[in-house]
Structures are given as C-alpha cells and as structure tokens.
Design brief:
The protein is mainly α and 247 residues long. It has 11 helices and no strands. The chain starts with 30 loop residues before the first helix and ends with a helix.
C-alpha cells in the first residue's frame, strides 16, 4: 500500500479526527505500541531505512494492521518525533526558578535527545511541533525567556539564539556520528585520519591546530562537550549583555 501524499501544512495534532476503518482493531496492537516500536527502529536504522513494512514485521502484524491506526508514514513519523521529545527530563518551570539555569537545562536535554535519536534532528524541521511533548518543551523555553524582561524582537531573538544553537550543534553532531558509524572506525581514529588529510591539503590547518579536536583518545568527544558548553555560556552571556543594555 503506497503512502498517501499529505499537505505539508497539516499536522496529525490538528487534523480533524478520521473515521475508523470498518472492522475491529487488530488484537494486541495499539497506537502507543506502534509508535514506541517505530522509535526503536528509527534509532537503530535511521529515517532512510525506515519503512512501514519493516515496522509491521517488527510488530509481527500485517502492514494493513498498522494503517488501522495511522493513515500514512508521515503521520507515524510525526508521532514518533513527539515520542522522542518526551525523553527530555524537564521539570515544570517553578515560580522562583532562574531563567538561565532553566534554559541551560533545556539546552542540555535537547542536545541529549537529538543525540539519542539522531533521526529526530532530521525530522524536527519537517513537521509542526504541536504534539504534547513538543509543546511542553517550547512553552517551557518561552516561559524561561520571558523572565529576562526582554520584549519584541529581542525576546524572540534570544530564544532563537539558544534553541537554534543547540539544534544546529546537535544536527552537526549526529551527522558526524553517522559518518563515524559508516567508516567502521572509532571516532578518535577517524578524527586522526581527517586531521592528517586536512593538514596535507592545506598547511594553514597546522597553524590553526588549536581549533581542531585533539588527536588523543577521547579527545574529540571531550572537545565536542567543551565546545557545546562554551557556546552555550557565550549565548547566555550575550542575553545578559542585551538585558543590561536595555536597562
């Protein structure tokens, strides 16, 4: 059964409820189980390798049984994306909570989520973030950034500075780890190979070695973590500087 095309502006979270197909729901199956299994397959194989037939096989049901719960693969991917976002451990924003600490927590959890589910970084820009977990994340971030006292374009710009930094960082990180996996090497080994090739191609890489990940074992992971933390520090410091300039 071919997937039906969807209007890219439509979301499963806002579409009118569809009439159930005739007959009873397949025994032992539920939308929750389908979505959880889809997340597991996406984690293992990625978006490109994911098919509804593979999902049905993993569930030990026919593909038609899956389509009793979702109309097409896009709907399922949207549900899976929100399920992945539910893995973020974000407490409700308390009345006295500091906006900086809360945004820092959000940033680390967002990065961890996109690291654990690399396919989610690819899908995040394709679907409307309107599921319950996505909305909790975004409203929590909005609540924190409003405590800065910034208004108008500065408010949206400050929020985008943090969230787009995390998204861009995590997307690049997931693409690097996919390259590592495809190479069959440990990431430190691949890093050393790339350093050598780059330095042979252009001597300026030798002069700028301090900007490259360290070549020792564990160096590239430690370098990524430090780069993320430092970038986040600078982003939050920039927001603080903007607040000070406005007052």
């Amino acid at each position: 059964m071919a997937d039906k095309p969807r209007d890219p502006g439509v979301s499963i979270w806002v579409s009118p409820p569809k009439e159930r197909r005739r007959g009873s729901a397949p025994a032992g199956l539920s939308r929750e189980r389908i979505v959880r299994t889809a997340v597991e397959l996406l984690d293992a194989e990625g978006v490109q390798a994911f098919t509804m037939r593979k999902l049905a096989a993993a569930l030990d049901v026919t593909p038609m049984s899956v389509y009793w719960y979702v109309d097409n693969k896009d709907e399922l991917l949207e549900l899976a994306l929100d399920e992945a976002f539910g893995d973020m451990r974000i407490p409700p924003l308390g009345d006295g909570d500091d906006w900086r600490a809360h945004l820092r927590l959000l940033a680390h959890e967002y990065r961890r989520c996109l690291h654990d589910h690399p396919w989610a970084a690819q899908l995040a820009g394709q679907f409307l973030a309107l599921g319950p977990n996505s909305l909790f994340f975004s409203t929590s971030a909005i609540g924190a950034i409003r405590r800065t006292g910034l208004t108008g374009d500065r408010l949206g710009g400050a929020l985008g500075l943090v969230l787009q930094f995390v998204y861009g960082f995590a997307l690049a990180e997931s693409q690097w780890l996919q390259r590592v996996k495809a190479s069959g090497l440990h990431e430190d080994e691949l890093n050393r190979v790339i350093r050598g090739v780059a330095q042979q191609a252009d001597a300026r890489f030798v002069e700028n070695a301090d900007l490259l990940p360290p070549a020792e074992d564990g160096g590239i992971r430690a370098s990524r973590d430090l780069q993320f933390e430092t970038g986040l520090d600078i982003a939050l410091a920039g927001i603080d500087a903007t607040i000070a300039a406005d007052h």
